[in-house]
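Technical note accompanying the year-one report. For the benefit of new consortium partners, we illustrate the data format agreed upon in the data management plan: each record pairs a sequence with a C-alpha cell string. No post-processing was applied to the example shown here.
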Amino acid sequence: MLGIYDLKIEYKSNPNCVDNRKPRFSWKLKSDCSEVIQKNYRILAEVDGKVIWDSGVVESSQSQRIHYKGETLKSRQTVKWRVWVTAADGEGVLEEAISETAEFKMGLLNREDWLARWIEPEDKIAPDQDKPAPYLRREFLVRPGLKEARIYQTAHGLYEAWMNGKLCTEEKFKPGLTSYYYRIQYQTNDVTRLLQEGKNCWSVELGDGWWRGITGGSVKNNFGFKLHYLGQLELYYEDGSSEIIKSDREFRTATGGLLSSDMMMGDIYDARLEPEGWKEVGFDDSNWKKVHVIGGVHAGGYDNVGKCLYPGVDSDAPCHVDAELIASRSVPVREKEVFEAKLFRDAAGKMILDFGQNIAGYVKMRLHDTQEGQQIHLVHGEDINAEGCFSVEHINKPVMPVPRFQEITYICRGGDIEEYVPLFAVFGFRYLMVEGYEGEILPGDFLAKAVYSDMEESGDFTCSHPLINKLVQNSRWSQKGNFLDVAVDCPTRERN
C-alpha cells in the first residue's frame, strides 16, 4: 500500500511563519512493495477554501524542493495543501495515494507590515562593564470575542516574552544568530490561549546573547552596545475587526534580579532585587522609565537612520535597525534530556554534582531554607583532574581570560524554597561545583537540562560490539552538544 508522509514547506512541518514568496514543497513515500518509484504528482493549495495553486499532473519522480507557482502569496495567509502521487513498483504496477492536509502560514512579507518600532530600554552605558538585564512591560486591553492572537517578535540580544506571566513559547535562545548587520530572524507564535478578556500584561526580558556578549576569547560587543526589542501583537476578533499592539513608547522598563547575563560567563542574580509580580496585570510600574524609540524625529537619542546620539563611547555606533527582518529559518532550540545528579566530595573537599553525561545546557536549581543575602556559587566543568579535584583549567586559563567562566552566582532572598534556572546562559559540563550551600540535596533539587537545536534524527546504528555502539552514542552527544542554533567547535569555550 502506498502512503505519503513527512509533508514539509521550507524543510519544516506545518511552519507557522514563512516569508519565501515561492516556498518549496517536499514529501516522502512509503510502501509495503519494493522498488517503488514516483511517476507523477499533483499539488493543490488553498486559502479560505479558494484554490490558489493547482500544479496539475506533473510527470516527475521529484518529491523534494518543488517551488510554489501559484497566485502571489500575501502576508498572514494560512495556506492548506495536499499532494496526489502515482507510483509504480518493481513490477510496473501503478498505485495512487493522497496525502493528509498540511498547512503553512505566511509571515510579514513587507516592511510596511511592521507597525512596531524598535525600542531601547537602556540609557548611556559603559560598554565593557557587566550590565543588568532590561525588563520591559506594558498592559493592554482585549475586547470580548477574541478569535486569534499572534505575536511577531525579535531582539538585538536574546529575549524571553510572557503574556500574563506565561511564556509565549518554550523555544530558547531567540532570535538565533545571524549577521545582524544585514538580517535578523523574527519568531511568530499563537498566544490566543494566554490572553484574557479585559486587562493583560505583555512582559519581556533581554539578555546580551550573541549581540554583545562574549562568544569566544574575551571579545564582547560583537554587533552592538545596547539591547533592543521589536514586537507586534495582532488581535483578531469574531466580528471581523482587528487590532495591533506594538512595541512603542507605551512600554516601560527597569532592571531586576538579573544583574549580569552572558552566554559563556554566566549569570549574577540577586533574588532580593526581583520585582515581585512584574509580569502580571496590576503591577505598579509608575517608577519604571519609558523606553526610547529608535528612528524618527526625537526618537529617544537616535537619528532617522538609527545612529546613536548619546554622548560617550558608543556615540557613533549604529544599531542596525535597517537590517532585513526574516522569518525564522533556524531549527528551534529546546530543552531536551534531563539528568539527575550524584553528589560527592572531591579531593579538595568541594561539593560536586556528577550528572553522568557531558552535555551543553544548564542546571535548574532548587534551594531549601536559605538566608537573605546568602550567596550560592555554581561552576560548570568537564573534568576531575589527576589529583581528584574538580577543575576547569584545561578549558579556561590561560585560554579564556574572562572574569568568570561558566558560573552562576545566586544571591538568595531567603525562604523555605527558592528556584533558579538561567534564561540566557548555556554551558558545556558534566560536573557542577556548588559553593555556599550545605543544605540537604533532595531528588530533583539540581537537574541538568540538555539544550540544543531540536534536530530530526535521520538514522541510527547498533551492532553486537559495545565499544562501537558507545562510539555512535558519543558521536551523537557531540553533535547535540555542539548545535545550539549554530554549530560550534566546543560548548565550553565557544558560543559562535
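Partners are asked to follow this layout when depositing records. Residues 296-306, 309-316 have pLDDT under 50 and may be disordered.
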